[in-house]
Amino acid sequence: RRGGQRGGGGAGGGAGMGGRGGSNTFTSFGAVPVNGKNFYRLLAAGEVVLLFPGGAREVYKRKGEDYQLFWPSKPEFIRMAVRHGATIVPFSAVGAEDGFRILADSDEILKLPFIGDAAREQSKGMPRARAVDSRVTNDGAEEENFVSPLVVPLTPQRYYFKFGKPVDTSGLYESGFLKDEEGVAAMYADVKAEVEDGIDWLLRRRADDPFKDTAVRTLYEVATGGKQAPTFNP
Predict the structure, then answer these.
(1) What are phi and psi of 33, to 5 degrees?
(2) pLDDT (mean) for 218-231
(3) pTM for the predicted model, two decimal places
(4) Nearest Cα to 190, choosing from 166, 209, 212?
(5) What angle do CA 206, 157, 102 make, to 5 degrees?
(6) How many Cβ atoms sit within 10 Å of the Cβ of residue 34?
């Protein structure tokens, strides 16, 4: 992990590497369009990249997919990280997906008369982070779409984050590590497992947080003059 700090987008969990994606809202805090060229350039410049490998599929989840990861089986970012000797920091996040209820997910919207056809056409015009999505070519998944689900907001929930064990890739490129297909795949699987384990851990430990409910937490912070409510002990 080196240099400054930039980000690139998604939800649930990912890997920080030592990216900026999207509209003016995102570029205002240092985001850049998510693609392989920008990823390479940022790492080559020694920037810190915030990456969500699940992409739009992981953002626009279907009903019943809370906190699931949708990473491709192909270890895309591992090779790039090793090429630049970056340190990979897996991280997990819980809270965002409890702040809304899905009334109609992407699949259901695409099945609606007229609306579904319009949404499909609009999705085709969106920029793609991957020229070839290995989840489609290798994993048998459907093509990623950018159809936002119809949701109803709920009471905002407390957010929890957990950073996993860093993976130092310095020197691996020079040693020929990228020729070891099994080793690359194993590193990728370890990073993904670290993120999934972190999500599971946060979901379990959240139950021990006496201030997980917004109302209770707000009352405490008002009564203590704005002091932040504590959380569970790690």
Answers:
(1) -55, 140
(2) 94
(3) 0.81
(4) 166
(5) 110
(6) 23
